[in-house]
Amino acid sequence: MKTDIEIAQGIALQPIANIAAALGIPAPALIPYGHYKAKVQYTEIDEAKVAQSKLILVTAITPTKAGIGKTTVGVALAQGLQQLGKKAIVALREPSLGPCFGMKGGACGGGYAQVVPMEDINLHFTGDFHAITSANNMIAALLDNYQYQHRGTELALKQITWRRVLDVNDRSLRFIVSGLNGPGNGIPQETGFDITPASEIMAIFCLASSLDDLRRRIDNILLGYTHHNQPFTVADLGVGGAITVLLKDALNPNLVQTLEAGPAFIHGGPFANIAHGCNSIMATKMAMTYGDYVITEAGFGADLGAEKFLNIKCRQAGIYPKASVLVATSQALKLHGNVTLADIKKPNLKGLQAGLKNLERHLENLQHFGQSVVVTFNQYSFDTAEEMDYTAQWCREKGADFALNNGFAEGGRGALPLAEKVVEVIEKRPSQPIRHTYALEDSIPEKIHKVVTQIYRGKEVVFSKTAETALKKIETLGLAHLPVCIAKTQYSFSDDAAHIGVASDFTLNIENVIINRGAGFIVAVAGEIMRMPGLPKDPQALHIDVVDGKVVGLS
Amino acid sequence: MKTDIEIAQGIALQPIANIAAALGIPAPALIPYGHYKAKVQYTEIDEAKVAQSKLILVTAITPTKAGIGKTTVGVALAQGLQQLGKKAIVALREPSLGPCFGMKGGACGGGYAQVVPMEDINLHFTGDFHAITSANNMIAALLDNYQYQHRGTELALKQITWRRVLDVNDRSLRFIVSGLNGPGNGIPQETGFDITPASEIMAIFCLASSLDDLRRRIDNILLGYTHHNQPFTVADLGVGGAITVLLKDALNPNLVQTLEAGPAFIHGGPFANIAHGCNSIMATKMAMTYGDYVITEAGFGADLGAEKFLNIKCRQAGIYPKASVLVATSQALKLHGNVTLADIKKPNLKGLQAGLKNLERHLENLQHFGQSVVVTFNQYSFDTAEEMDYTAQWCREKGADFALNNGFAEGGRGALPLAEKVVEVIEKRPSQPIRHTYALEDSIPEKIHKVVTQIYRGKEVVFSKTAETALKKIETLGLAHLPVCIAKTQYSFSDDAAHIGVASDFTLNIENVIINRGAGFIVAVAGEIMRMPGLPKDPQALHIDVVDGKVVGLS
Question: Where does ATP bind (chains A, B) (predicted)?
């Protein structure tokens, strides 16, 4: 069996100019980055065409630590739709360097369903993450300089809430004291670094609708509080223009291709807990401008990813998916059916049946949003016909469609049944406009309560004292109209990662509430959420190399 | 008077593919980054052509805080040579984002002698600095992870010498304590960040002769010492391959153009104190492959820049300049003639005459290296004919050529006298092969002593206890054969920045000696050398913006 990178390197790529020309992208709007990557000027987005395009959300049941394979399914579905003669484009998130060199690996799909050139996409790509890192840290340096230049005066801030970021897994940087070694070297301060996908700049970048909107959001970022407890923003610091300049090129979506030479837009990559977990609105709308079918994904399981996609991203962008694909794996189902981790790759119909309750709840949630759902398997070689048949039958009984998908092993051909089913569903019984879980007019605690009770199915929300204080501040600042982004473990409906299957009637503890005024949402943090991962004992970096001019060890 | 950025934006650029085609660069070797920037595969370097090309070094007298304008002169000279019908290419360093958003500004030249697109070059360009930052910090994360995974065992290191970098002016990061907040978040440690141009990766990048050589140098980087005082390198950490992968694309030199549509290679940008201060060897050799005349520069005054260029870079690369251009300004000469800073823009022949001693010493030093020298003025509107005539006459008496240069105001046309003179010198009396200041076989203290006495004209070198210890370690490690890179203030021949003009018979104090085993040189630090600048009260970031889609405020 070939590795992902061997498969990717074994296929001759089309020049990106050809991919763009086939879509009808005007040549002057195409900004090449090498021969196989390009940016497309965001001004090419055409809202009239966006309104005509059929958006498809790929989401998943509660994942295992290895993930479910949404990206693989999304790419396979795009390849399958193209094999059916449809103008289909996939829109995905950009990978982060941290996990690539750590444990999780890249984010280009797998097997015969990948976006390429996968080495480039998984490494520096077109520099978007670097631009975001620079912008984030330039704000930090300018802010600390402001403090330094105004030290001892009333202009100095009382509290700084802005942190720095790096796109690397570096646990040593989570908590630091900066500004040491005496006067002249800044002001001592407890602070730290998050990973770049956790930067508010990343969230802003992915929600911005234009360069002006990007600027407005950057100016709005809350950096801390003055001596008189007033909010202090990037606009107050006076550097919104400079930070926008650092992001202006990155803002244009990136065009690459699938292994079957279909178009793919890969742009932005925010975390799916602390942020909303979807590629940029610009990439989605650019894909919708040029594609009749646009496949996109949202991070983690549907409780986190789809909820935020529908309540935050789609609400803001004024779009909604005509169908949702809910991805399951036999392994995850068995895990939720209490099969031990060591045994989840073995045939076990009973274990799988017991785990269907997790799938059922995600299905109900999506249907409650108004989504027409097609359940699919991200197939593995050890899946049995019995298991798949049972799941298919079970889905039909629940009013959902089911289609097989063997895209990893077979590429688009393996996803043809899924592609056909999705086309049929969109034609015959497309989703309804989104029934949002909460109204923007609801108070922040109400919004959180509605997500917790209706989506997670907990019975109550308890706010810590810190969170209560923050909630009051939000009222004072007049920001209660913002949507909420709940940062919770991806492994359970509850805030307890060990509680797999379907947690119910639990209490969700909100430890902290963070104001992302630039991004335009309020983050409610349930439990300990890692914003800077660490490296494992055997990091992938030990296996990455250049051999005969080719990169090895990326996955 | 138009600003630099207004001039740059007012000129229609040639597609970079045209610039490359005119040079004879094969199309498949050209990797576009947008329409006006490209990388050229380093494998196109042809040593036979390099040997035929005429290299010209642009260096300077001891600068003022505003600099001397070597880049402006270098670009103007290239433009002038092109107007003479010569195939001339300029090879320069890449700017750092820190100073661009701080005080010093960009590094693309000025007036009508600039490389363009200056906004792109001054911002993210083709991502080289970001790749270097990533590589540096990935090593730091992997190293701290090694310490963390082996904590409490004999495998844990006793001392870590590697620091992190960011391409930003951020004084608060100079001295930090990382790994705080208890077990699970790394091991508490005193450390800090330098600016990216001060990274050893940057020096390595600029001295590497191939991808394999890059890999070898990265593997050689000394990161710290084991429990048994043995050196611990990137090879010991096992991540040389992964770090090389992060740099492999960046390694290809960047092609852009001058304001007069001539070719320019801009690649790498190491500090000129803590490192050797020149663009990459690859860029110089790429320019020499395609150009009959190649103009390059070395950071700060000739005591720092030219010395390192000749003793480190040229020695390693096996090249030498056929002529050196020594740049002076009337302002700097007057400053060295003890005219007060406030008055250096006013006509003052006597002040200028008194400052010629600084020019004289740099001239002598260059001639001692075997260089044929053309002295030039980076002309300003307030320079008087009397001042320039006097300097010209003075130069002739010292056996050096002199030519006027008004490239800032007039572009290549203003540099025609200089270009003609340089061509004449190279034809009639080219430089001799380099007479190096020291032999590689000399001990490290001998090498330092020779530079200090012969170039700086001090009388002795005193090593601190820390430096003495490091010198012993160098002997033990068998690294005494490496060249030395002295990190000293750029404002004086001595280690005292206030001592302008010509310091003599001083004692130079070496506070510390740093082993850059990957770069392949030993850094001797004289006095306090800033490796992470701070921001001023009124940082340039406050004036940078996007207005009607155009960047303003970069210089």
Answer: 64-71
A71 has binding-site annotation: yes
| DSSP sequence for A38-66 | EEE-GGG--HHHHHHSEEEEEEESS--TT
pLDDT tens sequence across A314-343: 999 999 999 999 999 999 999 999 999 999
Q: What are phi and psi of B243, to 5 degrees?
A: -70, -35
User: Is beta strand B521-526 parallel, antiparallel or unpaired with respect to B484-487?
Assistant: parallel
Side chain identity, residue B257: Q
Interface of B with A in 202-231 (CB under 8 A): 211, 215
pLDDT per position as a tens digit, B410-428: 999 999 999 999 999 999 9
Among chain B residues, the shortest Cα distance to A41 is held by B34
Cβ distance A493 to A503 under 8 Å?
yes
- Beta carbons of B118 and B311 less than 8 angstroms apart: no
CB contact under 8 A, B546 and A245: yes
- What's the number of CA atoms in the CB half-sphere (13 Å) around residue A410? 17
> Is B507 assigned to a binding site?
no
**What are the structure tokens assigned to A448, written together?**
């959180």
Give exposure, B348-376, as e/b (b: 16+ Cβ within 10 Å).
bbebbbbbbebbbbbbbbbbebbbbbbbb
Per-residue pLDDT at A158: 96
In chain A, residues with a C-beta closer than 8 Å to the C-beta of B184 are 171
CA distance A121 to A137: 23
Q: Could you tell me the two tokens for B40?
A: 């050229």
Asked if the interface predicted TM-score (ipTM) of this complex is over 0.90, the answer is: yes
Residue found by looking up tokens 């398997």 in the block: A377
User: How confident is the model at residue B399, as a pLDDT?
Assistant: 87
Nearest one of A16, A222, A455, A184 to B174, comparing CA atoms:
A184
CA distance B425 to B60: 18
Query: How far apart, in whole angstroms, are the C-alpha atoms of residue B72 and residue B90?
Result: 11
Q: Is B59 annotated as a binding residue?
A: no
Could you tell me the end-to-end alpha-carbon distance of chain A, in angstroms, rounded to an integer? 14
* pLDDT digits 0-9 by tens, A268-281: 999 998 999 999 99
Query: With an 8 Å Cβ cutoff, are B101 and A175 in contact?
Result: no
Q: Which residues pair with A297 in a beta bridge?
A: A58
B241: nearest CA partner in chain A:
A545
Q: Is B38 on the interface with A (CB under 8 A)?
A: no
CB contact under 8 A, B535 and A175: no
- Report all structural domains of chain A as residue ranges with CATH numbers, in order of start: 4-127+250-428 (3.40.50.300), 128-247 (3.30.1510.10), 444-526 (3.10.410.10)
Q: What is the DSSP code string of B467-484?
A: HHHHHHHHHHTT-TTS-E
Say how far apart CA A493 and CA A364 lie, in whole Å.
14
- Identify the residue among A148, A172, A535 best suited for mutation to test binding to B, counting B beta carbons within 10 A and taking the highest: A172
Q: What is the average pLDDT value for chain A, to the nearest integer?
A: 96
Closest approach of B132 to chain A, Cα-based (Å): 11
- All residues of chain B having their beta carbon less than 8 Å from the beta carbon of residue A124 are 127, 130-131, 134, 246, 249
Q: Which is nearest to B50 in space by CA: B314, B428, B254?
A: B314
Helix/strand/coil for B168: coil
Rounded to 5 degrees, what angle do the CA atoms A404, A410, A414 make?
25
Out of A35, A127, A134, closest to residue B97 by CB: A134
Residues 6+ apart with CB under 8 A from A182: none
Contacts of B542 in chain A (CB under 8 A): 238-239, 242
Give me the phi and psi of B214, to 5 degrees please.
-60, -45
Give the C-alpha distances (Å, rounded to integers) separating A426 from A58, A67, A373, B23.
Answer: 14, 27, 10, 55
CB atoms within 10 A of CB A506: 18
